[in-house]
Amino acid sequence: MPTARESLLDAALSALAGLPWSGVRMVDVASAAGVSRQTLYNEFGSKDGLARALVRREADVYLRGVDRALAERPPASPTGSDAGRTPVGPADRLVRVAEWTVGSARSSALVRALLTGCWSERLPAPSVRTTAAVSAVPAQRRADAGVPGPAELVAAVRDRALAALEKEVPGADPVELGRYCETAVRLGLSCVVAPPGRGEEPAGYIRSVLARLPVRAAG
């Protein structure tokens, strides 16, 4: 059963689907979540705090998807053994991450804004609080925390990918491998902003570019 916090965030996201953020009312969000307006303010402090928490949750959902894409294994063979599995190389994992990036940005306007830094007037572009303004109340302190910018989010994906792949590419220069991982993410973003030509899927485009970028050994 979702917590009051999750129910409030779900209600806010549902309201945003039909209204610009300026038209979303706190009282309506509380009512849709089945809690009092005071509970909403106790949890988030203000509408701006609600906005930050909502955007940050979308960032977390995106990053959890990145982790799944990096960890995913191919289907088992009909016999139940690993013999029928096709090995998954670093490029395959990075293509999956890039595909997840493209799909997430297409399906969520908030994820697209987080990744590109382009916030429309319909979206809750949360302001940044200073340290001095942080509340002593734990729930509101969570709402006061900032949200990641595009560079920070790309770096988080790169670091996750690097941690997942460095054991699979023995002898690779960590700096080069990190750049390789970041390139895959940025290729995904390029497909968000400027999709490939007609008839070409992002995965094929990304895979063809990565194939031309071998990772050099350390030293």
Give the helix level as a range of percent: 55-70%
What is the first-to-last residue Cα distance? 53 Å
Shape: elongated
The biggest beta sheet, please? Answer: none
* SS-based class: mainly alpha
H/E order of the elements? HHHHHHHHHH
Number of DSSP-assigned strands: 0
Radius of gyration: 20 Å
Q: Provide the low-confidence segments as ranges.
A: 128-133
What proportion strand?
Answer: under 5%
**What's the tally of helices?**
10
Question: What number is the mean pLDDT?
Answer: 84
Supply the key terms.
about 220 residues; 10 helices; about 60% helix; elongated; mainly alpha
Q: How do the strands and helices of this protein lay out in sequence?
A:
Layout: H1 4-18, H2 26-33, H3 37-44, H4 47-71, H5 90-107, H6 109-116, H7 138-144, H8 150-165, H9 174-193, H10 202-210
Describe the structure.
- The chain contains ten helices and no strands.
- It has helices spanning 4-18, 26-33, 37-44, 47-71, 90-107, 109-116, 138-144, 150-165, 174-193, 202-210.
- Helix 6 (109-116) crosses helix 8 (150-165).
- It is mostly helical.
- Helix content is 61%, strand content 0%.
Short description:
This protein has helices spanning 4-18, 26-33, 37-44, 47-71, 90-107, 109-116, 138-144, 150-165, 174-193, 202-210. By secondary structure, the protein is mostly helical. Helix 4 packs parallel to helix 8 (150-165) and helix 6 crosses helix 8 (150-165).
